[in-house]
Amino acid sequence: MKKYETLTKAEMQVMNALWALPDGGCIHDIIALYPEPKPAYTTVSTFLKILLNKRFVNFRKISGKTHTYYPLISKDDYTSMVMKDVKESFFGGSSSSMVKFFAKNEKLSENEIKELLEIIQKQQLP
């Protein structure tokens, strides 16, 4: 997997909007997915330029000055990369230490615990 930089909170908002748009979208499409108060057109445009430079997105020119932006990395791939970095940085590369930390510090529902146990059991099967 290609190494990407970590996204800022504002960049993540733009990426979440793009990930929600199956075929990508123009700046107006991205803004439409934001809650109120919506950011300015120029603000989203600036973040898209940053994301282009970081190679998280690309674009297609559709007409005149209008571009359709689309992600170059899936949300799952980005999440995996970030979580791998968290595991390495905070838990010495130990998956079990990371899971133990979240199990101790999060208020997990009975369903969440059951779901986690099912995932762990499936991992242990040959």
Describe this structure in words.
With 126 residues, the protein is mainly alpha-helical. The protein folds into 2 domains: 9-71, Winged helix-like DNA-binding domain superfamily/Winged helix DNA-binding domain (Arc Repressor Mutant, subunit A), CATH 1.10.10; 75-124, no CATH class. 59% of the residues lie in helices and 10% in strands. It is built from 6 helices and 2 strands, in the order αααββααα. The chain has a two-stranded antiparallel ribbon with strand order 1-2. The radius of gyration is 18 Å and the shape is elongated.
Features:
single chain, 126 residues, mainly alpha, Arc Repressor Mutant, subunit A, 2 domains, two-stranded antiparallel ribbon
CATH topology of the largest domain: Arc Repressor Mutant, subunit A
Using only C-alpha atoms, the radius of gyration works out to: 18 Å
Class by alpha and beta content = mainly alpha
Spatial ordering of strands, largest sheet: 1-2
Identify the overall geometry: elongated
Classify the beta-strand content into a percent band.
5-15%
Q: Provide the residue-averaged pLDDT.
A: 92
Q: Report the major sheet.
A: 2 strands, antiparallel
Uncertain ranges: none
Number of strands: 2
Tell me roughly what share of residues is in helical segments. Answer: 55-70%
CATH first level of the largest domain: Mainly Alpha
Order of helices and strands: HHHEEHHH
